[in-house]
Amino acid sequence: MDANRPHSAESDSPGVDLLGMARRHWWLVLILMVAGVAGAAQFTSMQTKVYESATSVLVSPIGNGQDANSTSGRTKGDINLDNEAQLVTSTTVATDAAALMRSTTPPDTLAGNVRVEVPPNTTFLVITYSAGDPAVAQAGSHAFAEAYLRNREESAKAEVAARIAILNDKISQLNAGLTQINTKLATLRPTDPNRPNLESQRSTATSQINTLAGQLNQLLTTTVSAGKITRDADLPSSPVKPNRLLNLASGAMIGLLLGVGAAMLRERLDQRVRRAGDLPRRVDVAVLAAVPGRVKPRLDDVFAPFGTGGRIFNRLRNEVLASIPAPAGGDARVALAGQVVVVAGASRGAASTVVAANLAAAFARTGAETVLVCAHLPDSLVDTASVNRMLGVRAVPGLSDVLAGRFSLSSATQRAPRHPNLSVVTTGGTASAGGLLQSQALRDTLATLRERAAYVVVEAPSTATSADAQSLASLADAAIVAVELRRTRNTEIVDAADQLRRVGTPLLGAVVLPRLTTPRTSDEREQAPEEPTVADDMTTVLDKLPPKETVPAKKDEEPAVTKRIRTTPAAASSTAPSPTVPVPPKRQNRTFSVTRIPAETPSENGADKRR
């Protein structure tokens, strides 16, 4: 099977990944957004309030008192509104405005608070003044507009006066020249040849004097109009800075960006598996099946056959069967008989138990004889689900008891009452079974199960806690890694895949489960009957078993070995006590016969029937 095959149920598109990341770390994004809004509110409260007031001034050409023609806010005539806007903030105008405001602030500082705008297609100047006090803002705007108009009017009057002086000088010069010409003409005879020339000069001078006199008269009668205020500054009612709404929105946006960045960083640093699509991309392990988050795995029973979880494991069963190649030239049904599949968890937890139990149930639903072998040692049962509770079987005897030689495999194999064709070998109750998963007894046990069942599903310990999963995988035909979301780390999956591949066992892929919850509540634990722990003495367990008759050994069969266990101390059969002490009633010694049944003898529950 191609290990690089992406899981079809998950999409690796950046948009889906980003949305999933935001959904997983929504609390971090929310916290930083709230922090951004709180910071913006604090910054707004610390800012100085700024008020603005504006005055509109109509700029008129000097001399005619008429509005100038304008194109795109710039005049065609003698007025250049860009120059006039610069004139408003000049030092001369700022000095006059400071005098009008009766302010001791330097003129250049006052000019820095002024902003001049030229509306399009108009000859207006909008003079805006900013200050920390509304009255100062109003006074400043009016003062700069008034100072600008006064300065422009004074400049215009000075210019007119200068032009009048120039015309008067020219007229005076022409009058002096005309006087000399008239004097010469008075001395000449009418027939003098120079007389026509002098009369021509007198005519020209007279004409020039008349022209200059007309211009002088026009200047003397010209009305100087620099412009006028069309809308005076008003008293601002609210500050323009700080803009609370803008600051809060900016703080929320900055917090959102920081939250997304922090979520991306946390996602990058977090090595836990968050979704099934991460496995092919990050750890190069194919996803055989993924149980969606809305389907909560049951820890007291397997999935229903026709439910969502049951259909997922039915498809998983089909993929497992298709992934195990049959020998060339052999019958497929015969070749697939006795196949051993190991399910190992990449991390501690109940993921391998859930996957192994449901996969075994899926195999059994095909009508083939299936055996589920729980190979968790007693010291690794802390974080695992109870298989006997899920499938309704007894906790003991189990695999560890078989490997320790206390029970035969047939007596440890139990039929699952709710699942036909499914037998279970639980973990067992022998506490001193360490190292038995690497023994020859385990190899013989799996070989016997291969002969008795079509499919053997082995629930192996986690690869993160011991090397037992690797030992079991070396005896199997295929291996599957069980991954629990938000608990299993990428490094653990890489290590698990490396362990299983090193022993030469084909790694089919991974089965992904959502985060598993506690199987039962505290009230359910109190009401449930207490199960024997791994530290229970085997004598107590055997006392609870009903007495059985010893099975006589048949010919050519292994003789049955009978062990007798005394349930009362030897002191109970001692001599009678002294007369001063009351004699308790004598207890009758009971002897139970426990028969070790050979492997070839069929068991009562039929778990050893071949397919």
Tell me the total number of β-strands: 16
The best one-word shape is rod-shaped
Approximately how much beta-strand content do the residues carry? 5-15%
What are the segments in which pLDDT stays under 50 over at least 5 consecutive residues?
1-16, 64-73, 327-335, 378-384, 520-611
Q: Count of helical segments?
A: 20
Instruction: Look at the structure and give the mean pLDDT.
Output: 76
Q: Record the strand order, biggest sheet.
A: 7-14-13-8-12-9-11-10
What separation lies between the terminal Cα atoms?
27 Å
- Percent of residues in helices comes to 40-55%
Radius of gyration: 53 Å
Structure classification = alpha/beta
Could you give a short account of the major beta sheet? 8 strands, mixed
Membrane topology: Multi-pass membrane protein
Subcellular location: Cell membrane
Transmembrane segments: 25-43
Protein name: Lipopolysaccharide biosynthesis protein
Tell me briefly what this model is.
43% of the residues lie in helices and 14% in strands.
Task: Characterise the protein shown here.
Belongs to the CpsC/CapA family. This is Lipopolysaccharide biosynthesis protein. The chain is an alpha/beta fold. It contains 20 helices and 16 strands. The chain has an 8-stranded mixed beta sheet, sandwiched between helices. A 4-stranded antiparallel beta sheet has the order 4-5-1-6, with helices on one face. It has a two-stranded antiparallel sheet with strand order 2-3. It is rod-shaped. The two termini are 27 Å apart. The N terminus and C terminus are likely disordered.
